[in-house]
Amino acid sequence: MHSPTSTRLRIARTMDPLAKQIFKGVLVAELVGIWGAYFLFRKMNTSQRFRQTMSKKFPFILEVYCKSTEHSGMYGIREQDQEKWLNSKN
Protein backbone atom coordinates (compact mmCIF):
# COMPACT_ATOMS: atom_id res chain seq x y z
CA MET A 1 0.00 0.00 0.00
CA HIS A 2 1.28 3.45 -0.93
CA SER A 3 1.35 6.39 1.43
CA PRO A 4 -0.72 9.46 0.44
CA THR A 5 2.47 11.47 -0.12
CA SER A 6 3.94 8.98 -2.58
CA THR A 7 0.59 8.78 -4.38
CA ARG A 8 0.52 12.59 -4.78
CA LEU A 9 4.08 12.65 -6.06
CA ARG A 10 3.28 9.94 -8.59
CA ILE A 11 0.21 11.88 -9.75
CA ALA A 12 2.27 15.08 -10.05
CA ARG A 13 4.84 13.28 -12.19
CA THR A 14 2.22 11.78 -14.48
CA MET A 15 0.21 14.99 -15.06
CA ASP A 16 0.23 16.05 -18.65
CA PRO A 17 1.74 19.44 -19.57
CA LEU A 18 -1.68 21.12 -19.97
CA ALA A 19 -2.73 20.05 -16.48
CA LYS A 20 0.56 21.39 -15.08
CA GLN A 21 0.00 24.73 -16.82
CA ILE A 22 -3.54 24.95 -15.47
CA PHE A 23 -2.34 24.07 -11.98
CA LYS A 24 0.39 26.73 -12.14
CA GLY A 25 -2.11 29.28 -13.44
CA VAL A 26 -4.55 28.57 -10.62
CA LEU A 27 -1.74 28.74 -8.07
CA VAL A 28 -0.53 32.10 -9.43
CA ALA A 29 -4.10 33.44 -9.46
CA GLU A 30 -4.57 32.43 -5.83
CA LEU A 31 -1.29 34.05 -4.79
CA VAL A 32 -2.20 37.27 -6.61
CA GLY A 33 -5.61 37.21 -4.90
CA ILE A 34 -4.05 36.74 -1.46
CA TRP A 35 -1.55 39.54 -2.11
CA GLY A 36 -4.33 41.83 -3.35
CA ALA A 37 -6.51 41.12 -0.32
CA TYR A 38 -3.58 41.80 2.00
CA PHE A 39 -2.72 45.07 0.20
CA LEU A 40 -6.35 46.21 0.28
CA PHE A 41 -6.74 45.37 3.97
CA ARG A 42 -3.48 47.11 4.87
CA LYS A 43 -4.42 50.23 2.92
CA MET A 44 -7.88 50.34 4.50
CA ASN A 45 -6.41 49.69 7.95
CA THR A 46 -3.98 52.62 7.72
CA SER A 47 -5.83 55.29 5.73
CA GLN A 48 -9.10 56.89 6.76
CA ARG A 49 -9.14 58.78 3.46
CA PHE A 50 -8.90 55.50 1.53
CA ARG A 51 -11.78 54.09 3.59
CA GLN A 52 -13.82 57.17 2.65
CA THR A 53 -13.05 56.58 -1.03
CA MET A 54 -14.07 52.94 -0.62
CA SER A 55 -17.31 53.98 1.11
CA LYS A 56 -18.24 56.04 -1.95
CA LYS A 57 -17.12 53.65 -4.69
CA PHE A 58 -17.32 50.18 -3.13
CA PRO A 59 -19.41 50.32 0.06
CA PHE A 60 -19.76 46.53 0.20
CA ILE A 61 -15.97 46.15 0.49
CA LEU A 62 -15.87 48.70 3.31
CA GLU A 63 -18.65 46.75 5.05
CA VAL A 64 -16.62 43.53 4.83
CA TYR A 65 -13.59 45.37 6.23
CA CYS A 66 -15.58 46.83 9.12
CA LYS A 67 -17.19 43.51 9.98
CA SER A 68 -13.85 41.68 9.86
CA THR A 69 -12.18 44.20 12.17
CA GLU A 70 -15.14 44.05 14.57
CA HIS A 71 -15.00 40.26 14.48
CA SER A 72 -11.32 40.42 15.43
CA GLY A 73 -12.15 42.64 18.41
CA MET A 74 -11.31 46.09 17.03
CA TYR A 75 -14.42 48.18 17.55
CA GLY A 76 -15.20 51.81 16.77
CA ILE A 77 -13.50 52.30 13.40
CA ARG A 78 -16.79 52.63 11.55
CA GLU A 79 -18.15 55.12 14.10
CA GLN A 80 -14.95 57.21 14.14
CA ASP A 81 -14.94 57.37 10.34
CA GLN A 82 -18.60 58.37 10.11
CA GLU A 83 -18.16 61.05 12.75
CA LYS A 84 -15.11 62.52 11.02
CA TRP A 85 -16.75 62.44 7.59
CA LEU A 86 -19.89 64.10 8.97
CA ASN A 87 -17.86 66.83 10.70
CA SER A 88 -15.76 67.47 7.58
CA LYS A 89 -18.94 68.17 5.58
CA ASN A 90 -19.98 70.88 8.05
Question: Could you state the order of secondary-structure elements as H and E?
Answer: HHHHH
Provide the low-confidence segments as ranges.
none
Helical fraction: over 70%
Termini Cα gap: 74 Å
Sheet of most strands = none
Based on CA atoms alone, the radius of gyration comes out at 22 Å
The SS-based structural class is mainly alpha
Shape field:
elongated
Average pLDDT: 88
Tally of helical runs = 5
Q: What portion of residues belong to β-strands?
A: under 5%
The overall strand count is 0
Organism: Physeter macrocephalus
Keywords: Membrane, Transmembrane, Transmembrane helix
Protein name: Protein CEBPZOS-like
InterPro entries: CEBPZOS
Helix and strand arrangement:
Elements: H1 4-14, H2 17-46, H3 48-57, H4 59-71, H5 77-89
Helix pairs in contact: 2-3, 3-4
Sum up the structure in keywords.
90 residues; mainly alpha
Question: How does this structure look, described?
Answer:
With about 90 residues, the chain is mainly alpha-helical. It is built from five helices and no strands. Helix 3 crosses helix 4. The termini are far apart.
Outline:
This protein is mostly helical and 90 residues long. It is 86% helix and 0% strand. The chain has helices at 4-14, 17-46, 48-57, 59-71, 77-89.
